[in-house]
Each structure stands twice: as C-alpha cells, then as structure tokens.
Design goal:
- With about 425 residues, this protein is α+β, with helices and mostly antiparallel strands.
- The strands form 5 sheets. Strands 6-7-8-3-9-10 form a 6-stranded mixed β-sheet, with helices on both faces.
- The protein contains 10 helices and 22 strands.
- The chain binds adenosine-5'-triphosphate.
- The site of adenosine-5'-triphosphate (ATP) has 13 residues, from helix 1.
C-alpha cells in the first residue's frame, strides 16, 4: 500500500496566508494516521497537497518514496472521502458505487462483483437499488465510503467524513471505518478537529496548530507525554490543569515549585529535578490532569494542596470540583475555550517595590521586557508580572457522582508528582529525552 512522506512542506496562498509551515510527516504502509487540530490549522491543505489538488509552495510530497509533486491527482491511486459526500442524486446506490469502475473501463461482470463485495462489507447490500434521497445520513456516508473503496486505492484521504452526522452515528461509524480500513490494509490520512475521534481511531495522531506540526505519536504518547503545552491543553477532557510555578533549587535536597500560596517539592533524586533546576529563579508551567489529583483527608501527609471549591459540575458518572489553590492559571489560546476574565488585583506600594526588585535582580530571567525566551517569534505563556495580572487557576478534580460537598467547602488534594508535566514559558516540554 502507498506510503506518504512530507519533507519540509510549506504552503503559502497567493494572499500571503501561510497555511502549512515546514511540515515533516510520514505515513507508513497500512497506517491509520489522524491529522488533528482546530479549524484553520492547515489539516485540509496538507491532505489536498497529498491528493495533488494543491501544489506545495516548497518542499516535497513523496508517494511510495517517489517525488509526487508533478504527478496529476488521477494517477496517484488515492481515494478521497469528504464531509459533504456528494453522491449523484439521480443514480442508484449501485450506480454510485460502480461509477469509478465504469470510468476506468472495468467490464460489467467484474464491476458487479466488486460492488457486491464492497456493499456487503459496508452492510448496505440491501440498499443497492435505492437513490441517495431514500437513505439516512449514515447510509449515505457508507455509500460514499463504498465508492472510495471500490477502486482499491493505495491510500485513503478522509476529510472530516463524519462531521455532518449526529453523535451516536458518529461513534458507530468511527468504529466501522477504522475497522474496515484496517481490514483492507490501506494506508489512511484522516482529518478531524475532534480529539475523541483522533484518539480512538488512530495508529498515530499528528497535531497541528497554525500550520505547524506540534507533535506526532501514538494516542498514548501524545496524551501521556505531550511535546508541547498546546498539545497538553488540546487533548483530554476535562482539560489539563495548567498553572504557573516559580522554581527554587535547594541543592542536594529538593526543587521547590512555588505556586503562590503553596508549594510542591521534587526530591533531588527525582530524575526531573536536575532538568528543572536550570530554571532556578524563573517561572515554568506545571500541567496536571484531573487523574493526577485525588481528594484526600485535610491532614493527609505527602504532596497535598489545600484549596477551596469554587464550583461543581455534575456529569452523571462523575462530578468535577473546580478548586482554587491560590495558583495562577496559564491560558492557552485558540482552544475554543471561553475567555477567562482577568482579575485585576490592587497593587500596594510594597508590591510595586517587590516587582521592581524582582526585575532588578532578574528573578524572572535577565531578558529584556517583551522579548520571548529563545526568540523565534514565540511569546511567553506566563502572566505579566509587570502588569500584576493574576489569572486564578481552578483545578479540575474528579469526585464521585453527586458528592456530599458544596461549592465554598475546603478540599485537600493529593498530587501524584510522577504524573506532572513541565513546560517552559514558550510552551515546550522541559524534561527532554522523555519519549
Ligand atoms: N485558497 C486559499 N486562499 C487563501 N487562504 C486559504 C485558502 N485555502 C485555505 N486557506 C487558509 O489556510 C489556512 C488553513 O486552511 P485549512 O482549510 O487547511 O484548515 P483546516 O485545519 O483544514 O480547517 P477546517 O477544519 O476549518 O477545514 C486557513 O487560515 C485558511 O483560511
């Protein structure tokens, strides 16, 4: 089956939009690769370049190891399935599925055999005589799949094929499509903005943001060890809790992660302590998924944060408590999250003096103001101490369904230190050599 390789592929549209920015990506033989990202991040453009519908501005697309930039779309052994699967309304299901075979001159007898095979595999054998208008949305999508499969392509390109369907049908077809594609052994690139679809269907997930590839890995890798803050925040529900911490190294003893009113401690023999110690006197981002946090008794020993429940959310199978522990939230934009209100705190003369001293002593690093660490045009994700804005974090903690606890109550939270994620102020993962 067809393999795909994108080498430094960039697409700049005539109006100057950089839709895809130096993407390197491989799809192996028979692999199901999902391209995931929010609307406008460049997923469809990548797919269209692989299909030959769009030319890269620079870089090369390789199909089966051969440069394909000059190969016309019809010669690429590729089948595409889109969101708005345009079936021919005046043709029956049978005629719709067999259409590509008729175009390529396959005789009627083998044509009928292949259509019957494909329709059987898709469970639409009974519907061959109907027209698209007489089918449900799910059935129409199966016919569209049938029309793609029947040509025996080496590669499927699917662009949000399920997004027009209701959620029950989506879940059903999700399993069917990934099962069928694997059975056929055909390589597949599948575009979606739905993380559940990506994590359940993919062999590997490639996450994009603003044309740039952020991370590629198995669902377990990208969820469990995300390469960037963006990937960490994008994957998972509830979203990963992201808070600021100031790093203080007590040599040979521990690294203190000050969260504001409280601190967490990494023992010096923790392998991550050495790497994080390079950020002594600076701020970093700590990521903690809800599964890293457990309610504990108020006087429980160990790594515990004391907080107060701001509000509760009941989801039937579980409840979520959103807990203020006096920490500052890190907000990752473009996630479609509701804007978080910025809380202006009164600044006392002492605080102003403190800020001035911090700047002079370089507590927040010795970079000039406004210059991001490491350059590269990326800005800091941390709050601006000069403006003294604080975005209070509300840590999502899982509780049993409908707990006997109310908003406003105190809650002690046990923290699984081994499940924490650390990012620098530009959003890159700190513990290198981690995957
Ligand atoms: N022909 C074009 N001319 C100019 N800009 C374009 C063109 N086609 C796409 N773009 C822009 O390129 C960027 C990437 O678009 P693309 O369709 O690849 O994103 P996407 O991730 O697939 O989004 P969606 O999920 O909404 O389809 C967007 O900013 C889009 O507006």
């Amino acid at each position: 089956m067809t393999t795909v390789a994108l080498k430094d592929v960039t697409k700049v549209f005539p109006d100057g939009t950089v839709a895809v920015d130096r993407v390197n990506l491989d799809v192996e033989d028979g692999e199901f690769l999902v391209l995931l990202g929010p609307s406008g991040c460049g997923k469809s453009t990548v797919l269209r370049m692989v299909a030959g519908l769009e030319d890269p501005s620079s870089g090369v697309v390789l199909l089966d190891g051969e440069v394909a930039n000059e190969i016309p779309p019809r010669d690429r052994r590729i089948a595409m399935v889109f969101q708005d699967f345009a079936l021919y309304p005046h043709m029956t299901v049978n005629e719709n599925i067999s259409f590509p075979l008729r175009l390529s001159g396959v005789e009627p007898a083998p044509r009928a055999e292949r259509v019957a095979d494909v329709a059987g595999a898709l469970g639409i054998g009974e519907l061959l005589g109907r027209r698209p208008g007489q089918l449900s949305g799910g059935q129409r999508q199966r016919v569209a799949m049938g029309r793609a499969i029947v040509r025996r392509p080496g590669l499927f390109l699917m662009d949000e094929p399920l997004s027009n369907l209701d959620s029950g049908l989506r879940a059903e077809l999700r399993a069917e499509i990934s099962g069928l594609v694997r059975e056929l052994g055909v390589s597949c690139m599948y575009v979606t903005h739905d993380q559940a679809e990506a994590l359940t269907m993919a062999d590997r997930v490639a996450i994009m943001r603003k044309g740039v590839l952020q991370d590629v890995g198995t669902p377990t890798e990208v969820y469990g060890r995300p390469a960037t803050l963006y990937v960490a925040a994008f994957l998972g529900s509830p979203r990963m809790n992201l808070i600021e911490a100031s790093v203080y190294v007590h040599l040979d003893r521990y690294v203190a992660l000050n969260l504001g009113e409280q601190a967490l401690y990494l023992p010096w023999d923790d392998i991550r302590a050495r790497v994080i110690s390079h950020y002594h006197g600076e701020r970093i981002v700590i990521g903690m998924r809800a599964e890293a946090l457990t309610p504990v008794a108020p006087d429980a020993p160990g790594d515990v944060l004391q907080g107060r429940i701001r509000y509760l959310e009941h989801h039937g199978h579980e409840s979520l408590a959103f807990v203020d522990v006096g920490a500052t939230a890190v907000i990752v934009d473009e996630l479609g999250a509701a804007a978080v209100e910025v809380e202006e705190e009164p600044v006392s003369p002492f605080q102003r003096l403190g800020q001035a001293v911090q700047r002079l002593t370089g507590r927040f690093g010795d970079r000039s103001e406004g210059e991001p660490a490491g350059g590269g045009g990326r800005t800091s994700v941390l709050s601006d101490p000069g403006r003294h804005h604080r975005r209070p974090a509300e840590l999502a903690v899982r509780l049993a369904p409908y707990p006997a606890i109310r908003a406003g109550s105190a809650l002690a939270i046990g923290v699984r230190m081994d499940a924490l994620h650390f990012f620098d102020e530009r959003g890159d993962r700190i513990d290198v050599g981690w995957r």
